[in-house]
Amino acid sequence: MGGSGSRLSKELLVEYQDLTFLTKQEILLAHRWFCELLPQEHRSVEESLQARVSLEQILSLPELKRLIALHRAAVKIAMQSAWPSACNTANPFKERICRVFSTSPTRDSLSFEDFLDLLSVFSDTATPDIKSHYAFRIFDFDDDGTLNREDLSQLVNCLTGEGEDTRLSASEMKQLIDNILEESDIDRDGTINLSEFQHVISRSPDFASSFKIVL
Amino acid sequence: MLRQWSVQASGEPEPEPAGEELWEQEMERRCSSQEPVRLLPYAMVDKRFIRQLREPEGVKTSCWQQWRHRQQTAGRRLGEAARRLARGCGLWEGALYEIGGLFGTGIQSYFTFLRFLLLLNLLTLLLTTSFVLLPLTWLRPPDRGPALNFTLQCPGGHQPQTGVPKFNNLLWNVLTGRAFNNTYLFYGAYRAGPESSSVYSIRLAYLLSPLACLLLCFCGILRRMVKGLPQKMFLGQDYRSPLSAKVFSSWDFCIQGQEAATIKKHEISNEFKVELEEGRHLLMVQHQTRAQRACHLLTYLRVNILIGLLVVGAISAIFWATKYSQDNKEESLFLLLQYLPPGVIALVNFLGPLLFVFLVQLENYPPNTEVNLTLIWCVVLKLASLGMFSFSLGQTLLCFGRNKTSCESYGYNACDYQCWENSVGEELYKLSIFNFLLTVAFTFLVSLPRRLLVERFSGRFWAWLDREEFLLPKNVLDIVEGQTVTWMGLFYCPLLPLLNSIFVFLTFYIKKLVLILGLLLAAVPLGYVVSSLVLTVCVSQSQASARAIRGLRKQLVWQVQEKWHLVDDLSRLMSEPGSGDSLGPASPHSRGSRPRSFCPGFPCPGSPGPRASRPEPSLEDPNGLRGVRVPARSCRFPSGSEL
Questions:
Q1: Do B251 and A20 touch (CB under 8 A)?
Q2: Disordered: where is this region (chain B) (predicted)?
Q3: CA of A101 to nearest chain B CA: how many angstroms apart?
Q4: For residues B33 and B39, what is the distance between their CA atoms, to the nearest angstrom?
Q5: Is A150 part of the contact surface with chain B (CB cutoff 8 Å)?
Q6: I need a labelling partner for B79 at 20 to 30 A (CA). Which of B318, B508, B626, B637 fits?
Q7: How far apart (Å, rounded) are the C-alpha atoms in residues A146 and A139?
């Protein structure tokens, strides 16, 4: 937490509150986290708004912080410095999330506003519509606008992990994807588009509670 | 919206006209709609752009709008505060968040349930104290003399107990409740003067306050249970949550630890395998002949009858234990006999599930059926044990079905018990304490050492012993049993909720300690299935709540809308010759310097793209039908050592 120079101005805060689902405290906390990624001398407000951090930096930070925190308190884990789990290395979708929310041309770095967008979509108060919209984009591994068999297969592999006893066999994968397509592919074109995806998600009451990060 | 599409197709020399047109339409639609900017699925920079287009002169809000905005924010904050209050004034929020992040939402829900029970107990205590205890102390009750003058001739020269036990050890007295015999803990101390002398009827208050508490608890639990149920009920008996919905919403983004993530992946993998196995089994069942179906039914009956017999045997053991304990109250093995009924109940509840699991697994049922069967019988066993315990107490104290002369005059066994309500209260008090002590003992004498030793040493024995797992169903059932005992004792031991609150409070920290010290958690193979079952019965963590009904309505509306969507698409596609490819995601490159963030295709990204040839509906793999058995290890109900 820097000095008064690194606090966001009131107008900016109001604007961000208007454009996202976050509260004032959440936005300030996000800003604090973001500034910690930047080098010491570039932590002023103007520079933090212009800066972009690379994917590696974002991913490298939480583990480091967690290790340091663990060191300090053997049993008590310092939750105050917990980085949002979207960018945590434990999350198998971390790269997809960062790609989807990035607005840079090469799509490998996040600016502060991208970061706010990310937190806004994952917040408690975001509507299910917008969550399902972004979930669709995250699961669309090849970015073609539909979920085809390869996307689904990659999704399932992300979910089940790479272990020998957890990954599904080829026949199980095929059966699973056939089931998914049978249930969700309404127009029978072999892929799931956004509307079909949102339709399926609407039947799952757990989606909103699992697709969120609590700040 | 999907700028990557424009970036990807950077090779295109010029923008395609159809795409541009759609982009214009999209822009117009977004600008003219009234929905708040934050609801738009675009990047921040684009949301600002749209907001500027909507209100070019900047955001000019009138006083009225500003006031309304402030009211809405205030309302939202109030709602948040009320929700926090209802959830427990933010008690243990940090700890719950920590647990959720490290161990997943399944384990977190157990701790949330503990908090809920703590609040329930404290509320009960508050009611009892304010309506019974305080008026009682204020209205100054009559003397604490003996309530009855015994003129009864007791068989065998027994004199009515005067409450002076042979063993006068303080610890013994506390553990059996005798130390508190004349305190407000038990029924006996609640005396009231003649009815007409006071305005406030203590007797009525004493009767009604436990009833009110029970009603409150019932409503609270019902509310928690009902949150997730309406959707299931409306959609029919055979409704199973679609697999696709499970696939898309199974990852829990709150998970922060690597270990928790690994466990979650195990859970998900097992869940998928179980679902696929169920699907295969269902297909197989549909192709069964009549004879096979009859045979299947017979084996089903056989298992249930066998387990039923076991349950009957178990509860008769409890009956005899209680009778023996009551009949030999002043023997030399005093404390042991006093705690014999709770001991037998605990033993029965420990061995029962093990046997059930073993028997159920002898037949080859699909995983869901195995779990359901075992769980139902476990719950039956627990309830039956408590029921039989109460019945045998009733028989001893109130002479149900027996012909003791001492019962005739006073309606209860006045020779052996001066105040039978006190005795019942004592029994329930002992049961409650015993449950808690058992939990503590098990944690510190079994779980922790096991965990430490398995970590420290390597070798076949330790590997076989394996690390302790946090079994969600077992823990939830234990907690629920403790709460049931408390409810049973509300009339006889009015301050039992206070005791239970303390126990729940301590249990929270003990379990948390055990977890944080790194116990491996419920990679319970059917963890999701079992915990979702138990949680639906006991806890219900689903947050759909009132949205369930709204969601259904929305779904119906959505279905109609979506049909029109598709018709629209189709008609547009068919009306534009040779444009089959232009609506595809290969969007035109940006016009001008600013990379476009809007979807150049139809407003919904990924709407029917170029008509690819439809793949043949894949034939069911015949080999799959032969029941590729999920590895036995991964499909068991917590067996053997874990329980």
A1: no
A2: 1-21, 577-643
A3: 7
A4: 11
A5: no
A6: B508
A7: 9
**CA dihedral in degrees (B555, B560, B563, B567; nearest 10)?**
-150
Task: Report if residue B273 sits inside a domain.
Answer: yes
Can you give the pLDDT at residue B502? 95
Residues A117 and B41: their CA atoms lie apart, in Å, by 9
Q: Specify the DSSP class assigned to residue B470.
A: E
Torsions phi, psi of A188, nearest 5? 55, 45
Phi, psi of B414 (to 5 degrees): -70, -20
Q: What is the spatial distance between Cα B443 and Cα B513, in angstroms, rounded to a whole number?
A: 10
Write phi, then psi, for A203 (nearest 5 degrees): -90, 0
Q: Does B8 touch chain A (CB under 8 A)?
A: yes
Residues making up chain A, counted from first to last: 215
In a domain, B275, yes or no: yes
Asked if residue B269 is part of any domain, the answer here is yes
Averaged pLDDT score across all residues of chain B: 71
Question: Contact B248/A204, CB-based, under 8 Å?
Answer: yes
Would you tell me which residues 31-50 of chain A have a C-beta closer than 8 angstroms to some C-beta of chain B?
A: none
The count of domains in chain B is: 1
> Closest Cα of chain A to B358: distance in Å?
24
- pLDDT category, A177, cuts 50, 70, 90? very high
Residues on chain A touching B598 (C-beta within 8 angstroms): none
CB atoms within 10 A of CB B485: 24
In B558-577, the residues whose Cβ lies within 8 Å of chain A are 558-559, 562, 565-566
User: For A54, which DSSP code?
Assistant: E
Give A153's pLDDT tier (boundaries 50, 70, 90): very high
| Average per-residue pLDDT for chain A | 78
Q: Which residues of A touch B608 (CB under 8 A)?
A: 187, 189, 193
ipTM of the complex: 0.83
Q: Do B269 and A103 touch (CB under 8 A)?
A: no
What is the least distance, in Å, from the CA of A201 to any CA of chain B? 6
Please say whether the beta carbons of B479 and B500 come within 8 A: no
Residue B263: inside a domain: yes
Contacts of B257 in chain A (CB under 8 A): 90
Instruction: Show which of residues 284-313 on chain B sit within 8 Å of chain A, judged by CB atoms.
Output: none
B404-434 per-residue burial string, b: 16 or more CB within 10 A, e: under 16: eebbeeeebbbbbbbbbbbbbbbbbbbbbbb
Two tokens, residue B572: 């547009």
Question: Read out DSSP for B257-325?
Answer: SHHHHHHHHHHHHHHHHHHHHHHHHHHHHHT--HHHHHHHHHHHHHHHHHHHHHHHHHHHHHHHHHHHH
Place of tokens 């199973």: B240
Q: How many CB atoms lie within 10 A of CB A107?
A: 18
**Residue A196, min C-alpha distance to chain B (Å):** 9
Highest mean pLDDT among A158-167, B91-100, B207-216, B280-289: B207-216
Interface test with A, best of B256, B266, B547, B557 (most A CBs within 10 A): B256
Res B486: pLDDT: 92
B10 interfacial to chain A (CB closer than 8 Å):
no
Looking at residue B506, what is its pLDDT?
94
Stretch among A111-125, A144-158, B303-317, B466-480 having the lowest mean pLDDT: B466-480
Which residues in chain B are closer than 8 Å to A73, comparing Cβ atoms? Answer: none
pLDDT per residue over B427-440, tens digit each?
889 889 988 999 89
Put simply, whether A24 touches B (Cβ < 8 Å) is no
Give the range of the structural domain holding residue B261, as residue numbers without chain letter. Answer: 257-287
